């Protein structure tokens, strides 16, 4: 995850001469401000220092990411990101010692490691998005870079060509990873994954600017020249190394926090909300003072299922019921496991007729499951309904009480039935209607 294509210029003898001349002049720069020559001199930072600084930052970030993976091994992406930073650090270190080691090692191997680091980091983005990692993404950019470097005899001395080849490879991989992150965020919205995509696009823009400068400004990539562009680019890349590592860890942490919050609000067995999650959702509904229907659904003779078919069959019945109910919730409906084999459904905006229609559809679908289940225990459900205005939490409690009374009447009538009561006026009151079959609805 680093810039590529040669190293930054060292200070040459002519630079030192200009510096000495400036320091011995009659006017002190610290009194009148820096001139253009002084600014250029300050911006022409030592190449080895720049690349070593980038390598050191990558080692720190990569080490932290590997440690984070060792603490929580469920996030494979974090391991890939850590390996990418450490691999890139080796590549940056080789570029830093270009004047010391042979060009084949410093230029070719160093740049190859940097391209490989970018590919591994992109693979980490894919893994974080819970998608299959493509081997092509890992191998193709490296192959293209090596072919380009090894097929041109003068590549080791052509800094502009190095910059262009590596820029194309790195930009293509980072752009692909950014697009992948954007698409994944449409399925699972994470604020910091959006930030990760933004950093990746910034990196692509930086690489593009460096490629353009290598063509239009020859000194920008000339290791024996003098160009502030190289120093500025290196400092930007240093910032990006730190930023991308931090944002990756923040995105991972955001997902962990979200999963923790979901586990605290959801029933682990069925995936429905638990009572704590139901309370949060109802509180949001009460703030809108919306009309709603409450359905209490209870599996008939659930204890008999556990006793005769076993607890696994009972667990399967709970999951089957939630699977039957979910398609009937609509866009705003709420499903929660209220306790044991009892579930609560809240349908905002529904009147009594709509609520009864939903309840009957659920009861019929459960009967269809019971008739078609050859290897699992069949079951039926009884449903109590209450409709009212959700203007405060106390109103919801009254609706629950009314729905519970209606559920009791459904059980007393022979089970596999739907009954409805009104929450108006406080305690619910169920009144019989003549003559009522198991599926009839009773209202007050």
UniProtKB/TrEMBL annotation:
<feature type="domain" description="GGDEF">
    <location>
        <begin position="290"/>
        <end position="423"/>
    </location>
</feature>
<keyword id="KW-0812">Transmembrane</keyword>
<protein>
    <recommendedName>
        <fullName>GGDEF domain-containing protein</fullName>
    </recommendedName>
</protein>
<feature type="region of interest" description="Disordered">
    <location>
        <begin position="425"/>
        <end position="444"/>
    </location>
</feature>
<keyword id="KW-0472">Membrane</keyword>
<feature type="transmembrane region" description="Helical">
    <location>
        <begin position="48"/>
        <end position="71"/>
    </location>
</feature>
<dbReference type="InterPro" id="IPR029787">
    <property type="entry name" value="Nucleotide_cyclase"/>
</dbReference>
<dbReference type="GO" id="GO:0052621">
    <property type="term" value="F:diguanylate cyclase activity"/>
</dbReference>
<dbReference type="Pfam" id="PF00990">
    <property type="entry name" value="GGDEF"/>
</dbReference>
<feature type="transmembrane region" description="Helical">
    <location>
        <begin position="161"/>
        <end position="179"/>
    </location>
</feature>
<feature type="transmembrane region" description="Helical">
    <location>
        <begin position="191"/>
        <end position="212"/>
    </location>
</feature>
<feature type="transmembrane region" description="Helical">
    <location>
        <begin position="137"/>
        <end position="155"/>
    </location>
</feature>
<feature type="transmembrane region" description="Helical">
    <location>
        <begin position="78"/>
        <end position="97"/>
    </location>
</feature>
<keyword id="KW-1133">Transmembrane helix</keyword>
<dbReference type="InterPro" id="IPR050469">
    <property type="entry name" value="Diguanylate_Cyclase"/>
</dbReference>
<feature type="transmembrane region" description="Helical">
    <location>
        <begin position="109"/>
        <end position="130"/>
    </location>
</feature>
<dbReference type="InterPro" id="IPR043128">
    <property type="entry name" value="Rev_trsase/Diguanyl_cyclase"/>
</dbReference>
<dbReference type="InterPro" id="IPR000160">
    <property type="entry name" value="GGDEF_dom"/>
</dbReference>
<feature type="transmembrane region" description="Helical">
    <location>
        <begin position="232"/>
        <end position="251"/>
    </location>
</feature>
């Amino acid at each position: 995850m680093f810039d590529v294509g040669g190293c930054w210029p060292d200070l040459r003898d002519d630079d030192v001469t200009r510096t000495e001349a400036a320091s011995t002049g009659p006017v002190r720069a610290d009194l009148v401000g820096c001139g253009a020559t002084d600014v250029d001199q300050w911006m022409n930072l030592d190449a080895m220092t720049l690349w070593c600084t980038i390598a050191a930052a990558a080692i720190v970030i990569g080490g932290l990411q590997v440690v984070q993976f060792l603490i929580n091994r469920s996030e494979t992406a974090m391991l890939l990101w850590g390996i990418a930073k450490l691999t890139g650090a080796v590549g940056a270190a080789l570029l830093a010692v270009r004047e010391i080691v042979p060009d084949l090692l410093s230029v070719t191997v160093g740049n190859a490691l940097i391209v490989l680091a970018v590919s591994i980091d992109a693979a980490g983005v894919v893994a974080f998005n819970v998608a299959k990692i493509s081997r092509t993404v890992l191998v193709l950019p490296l192959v293209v870079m090596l072919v380009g470097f090894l097929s041109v005899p003068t590549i080791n001395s052509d800094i502009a060509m190095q910059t262009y080849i590596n820029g194309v490879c790195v930009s293509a991989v980072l752009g692909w990873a950014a697009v992948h992150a954007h698409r994944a965020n449409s399925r699972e919205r994470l604020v910091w994954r959006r930030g990760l995509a933004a950093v990746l696009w910034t990196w692509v823009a930086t690489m593009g600017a460096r490629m353009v400068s290598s063509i239009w400004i020859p000194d920008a990539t000339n290791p024996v020249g003098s160009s502030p562009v190289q120093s500025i680019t290196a400092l930007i890349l240093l910032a990006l190394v730190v930023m991308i590592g931090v944002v990756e860890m923040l995105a991972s942490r955001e997902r962990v926090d979200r999963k923790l919050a979901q586990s605290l609000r959801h029933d682990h067995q069925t995936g429905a909300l638990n009572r704590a999650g139901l309370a949060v959702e109802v509180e949001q509904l009460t703030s809108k003072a919306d009309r709603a229907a409450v359905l209490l659904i209870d599996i008939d003779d659930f204890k008999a299922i556990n006793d005769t078919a076993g607890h696994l069959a009972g667990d399967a019945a709970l999951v089957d019921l939630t699977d039957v109910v979910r398609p009937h919730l609509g866009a705003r409906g709420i499903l929660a496991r209220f306790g044991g084999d009892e579930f609560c459904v809240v349908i905002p905006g529904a009147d009594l007729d709509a609520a009864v229609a939903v309840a009957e559809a659920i009861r019929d679908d459960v009967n269809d499951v019971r008739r078609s289940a050859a290897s699992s225990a069949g079951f039926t459900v009884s449903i109590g309904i209450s409709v009212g205005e959700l203007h405060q939490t106390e109103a919801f409690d009254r609706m629950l009480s009314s729905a519970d009374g209606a559920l009791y009447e459904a059980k007393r009538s022979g089970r596999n039935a739907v009954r409805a009561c009104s929450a108006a006026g406080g305690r619910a009151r169920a009144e019989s209607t003549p003559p009522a079959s198991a599926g009839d609805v009773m209202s007050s």
